[in-house]
Amino acid sequence: MRPLAAIVLVLGLLQEPAGKTRVAQRLVQELAEVGFKALHVKPAALLDAYRDWLHLREYGLVAREAVSARELLGAREPAELLNPVAMLTVPVSAKAFYDYGVPRSFFVYQADEARRLVAVRLASPDVGGVKSFALVNPVLLERGLSLVGREEVLGLLKRVEALEEVRDRAQMLSRANALAANAVERCLSRLSERYRVLVVEGYSDGAWPLGSLEARPAAVLAVAPGQVVAYDPGKFVAVVSASAGVKDSVRLEDVAGFINPEAYFRLPPPELGVGETRGGGADVVANYVLAKLEL
User: Fold this and answer.
1) Domain 1-37+196-295 is in which class?
2) Which of 90, 102, 185, 264 holds its CA 20 to 30 A away from the CA of 112?
3) What SS3 class is residue 183?
């Protein structure tokens, strides 16, 4: 089902952090100032039990961006509705791998987020707001390979109504992928009933955070350090659709070689604020998006 609201994609051109959230939040503010009821949505997010411990203890397994959308931008919807898919990784114990006699595996696990994935929380709209369900792989926790214990992880899932244990890593990833698209589509559909524009922030450098390829974004922005690259939405969807036929996960790098950007914008250093203009800035990006929305 296509969302009723206009969709603006804010994607990462690279895997490294580049300021997608700042661009998305400022864009929502700029759109609100000219009368558009807009919302910042983060369909999928990755949190870490060490890096994000205080946030997880306070809010549960939900993206920081979803909490910011409520606290900074005034959204009233449950944070899980703004972030339907949230993944949890844990730090692994160097001592445990030495004790097992496989110290090199510590580096393999620490470098691979999929190996350290212990939970995936999925949300879907419900009559009362939102319902959450989680897949949990306790193997790392039970073997003592993690710095975080089983009960601590379960404590971070306190806002989840149901749990399903999946002890095989490949099966867990497969099951999560199978459920994620539907969760994202349902949440976007519910939000599109209340907002005119959904500013959808992608995960890492993924090219398509919307679940179904039926969605037709009004604008596509890809963020890299110091810049925003804009693609023609129709051509972008066509390239992503073709790439999805041969790859399970399409990245911006896969798309970039088949479509030329239609616009480029400069962004100032983070210390100056995303709204400052140095050959670009949020105002120019917002004007570009407004022109797309008004077509």
Assistant:
1) alpha beta
2) 185
3) helix
